[in-house]
UniProtKB/TrEMBL annotation:
Protein family (similarity comment): Belongs to the outer membrane factor (OMF) (TC 1.B.17) family.
Name of this chain's protein: Outer membrane efflux protein
Subcellular location: Cell outer membrane
Record bears the keyword Signal: yes
Keyword Transmembrane: yes
MF GO annotations: efflux transmembrane transporter activity; porin activity
PANTHER family the record matches: OUTER MEMBRANE PROTEIN TOLC (PTHR30026)
Length: 447
């Protein structure tokens, strides 16, 4: 069944560049897209996704050759001397000789290369880095959905505030019309001045309510602009637009918990915890790496040392480095056990979230149904209250109704309109929740 009614659903936005202003109609879809491009949360999620690639590059760098160049220049004011004791062949006695090792100036340059051959922790880290990027991708989708929900709710709050202003303006205009009629009756001696005074009080009260409603609408507009990431000083105007509610279409939306972004985020978190556990288990594995270096040394009596009198020598070395863990006091076992507990907690959180999402879906469906019933009832009340008001106004002019009855009829009509406005807002909020529970919030952008 389709329910059609009038509401305020679009907005006009004034964008300013210098002294030039261009006016555009801001629909809900445009408001959401603006928020996805400009709101802080959306920007940060994009930066997180970009940063994830840099994290992958950082981990991958550990699997590539590590090349380091080292250079040094040393001056030795005091050269170390050692005593060498030798036997004199002629006398058979020991003779001590003092020998100086090294030169005052020494230069050294060295090129070092290391390459991981087997490192289980490094391999696991590469898998975790790729999974981290997938996590940030899903997390960005979740952030976008949360932003869509926030903007949609703020948008409908502005819509409800606009309806409230229109309702008070309508009631004020109707009461001012009756005030003029009563003024004419008083002038003709057909009505009492107290009736005019009571009507004037009613007019003044409605003017105060109108100002309060406008203030509330301005606050709601500011909340919408903040939710969008828009400058608060920008002006928003909301023209009227007719829209339809297709409750059957909402009912037919399938529920797929496995496709819910909240579930996918938790699943990726669990996957990351599993990889973190494997990284700890990798501490049980040996590591094997290759290392090599090529160096050049120069010695001289004075600076600069790079001259024809310097002594020069080269050196190099190649090696394999094997590290085998034997015993660390049970540290690795304890760390793996802690990771198991974190994984179990994540799984409990996942199951609880699925239960909560199922409940939210059922609650949203129930709220939509109740809101539709309330809207039907309130629409009938508005129509009936208007008929009562018209009849009471006519009876008052003919002396068949009192002013109290007329004011009561006006208040009843205003209450009926306000109740309808509130029920419209309740429906739209419940509609957003139902669409969210079915994992289709992005349809608000693509409609």
């Amino acid at each position: 069944m389709k329910f059609k009614f009038l509401s305020v659903i679009t907005a006009s936005l004034l964008f300013s560049w210098g002294q030039t202003y261009a006016q555009e109609i801001l629909t809900l879809q445009q408001a959401v897209k603006f928020a996805l491009d400009n709101k802080k949360e959306a920007k940060n999620s994009k930066l997180d996704l970009e940063n994830a690639q840099y994290q992958i590059d950082e981990v991958r760098s550990g699997a590539l050759p590590q090349v380091t160049g080292v250079g040094s220049l040393t001056y030795n004011p005091l050269i170390q001397q050692n005593v060498i004791v030798m036997e004199d062949p002629a006398t058979g006695q020991s003779v001590s000789t003092v020998i100086q090792f090294g030169q005052p100036w020494q230069a050294n340059s060295n090129l070092q290369v290391t390459q991981q051959i087997f490192n289980q922790a490094l391999f696991t880290g590469l898998k975790a880095a790729r999974t981290t990027r997938e996590f940030y991708q899903v997390n960005k989708e979740l952030t976008d959905e949360q932003l869509i929900e926030k903007v949609a709710n703020a948008y409908y709050q502005v819509f409800q505030s606009q309806l409230q202003v229109a309702t008070v303006e309508s009631n004020l205009g109707n009461t001012e019309k009756n005030q003029r009629v009563i003024q004419g009756l008083v002038d003709a001696g057909l009505a009492k001045k107290i009736d005019l005074d009571r009507t004037t009080v009613q007019v003044n009260n409605l003017k105060a309510q109108l100002q309060q409603a406008k203030n509330t609408m301005e606050i709601q507009e500011n909340a919408l602009k903040f939710a969008m990431g828009m400058e608060i000083t920008n002006q928003i105007d909301l023209p009227d637009e007719t829209f339809a509610i297709d409750a059957q279409a909402l009912e037919n939306l399938p529920i797929d918990l496995d496709n819910r972004t909240e579930i996918r985020v938790l699943e990726k978190q669990t996957e990351l915890l599993e990889l973190d556990k494997k990284a700890k288990i990798a501490d049980y594995y040996p590591t094997l790496s290759f290392s090599g270096n090529l160096g050049y040394m120069s010695f001289a009596q004075r600076f600069p040392i790079f001259n024809g009198n310097a002594t020069k020598t080269a050196y190099s070395a190649l090696g394999l480095n094997l590290s085998i863990p034997i015993f660390n006091g049970g540290k690795t076992k304890s760390q793996v056990s802690q990771k198991n507990i974190e994984i179990l907690r994540a799984k409990v959180e996942l199951e609880d979230t699925k239960l909560a999402l199922t409940m939210a879906s059922e609650n949203a469906r129930t709220q939509v149904k109740n809101s539709l019933i309330t809207i039907n009832s309130n629409e009938g009340n508005v129509k009936l209250a208007k008929e009562v008001l018209d009849n009471t106004e006519n009876n008052y002019k003919n002396g068949l109704a009192t002013l109290t009855e007329l004011l009561d009829a006006e208040n009843a009509y205003a209450d009926a309109q306000n109740n309808l406005n509130n029920s419209l807002l309740d429906y739209k909020v419940a509609e957003v929740q139902l669409i969210k529970s079915k994992g289709n919030l992005k349809t608000l952008v693509n409609e």
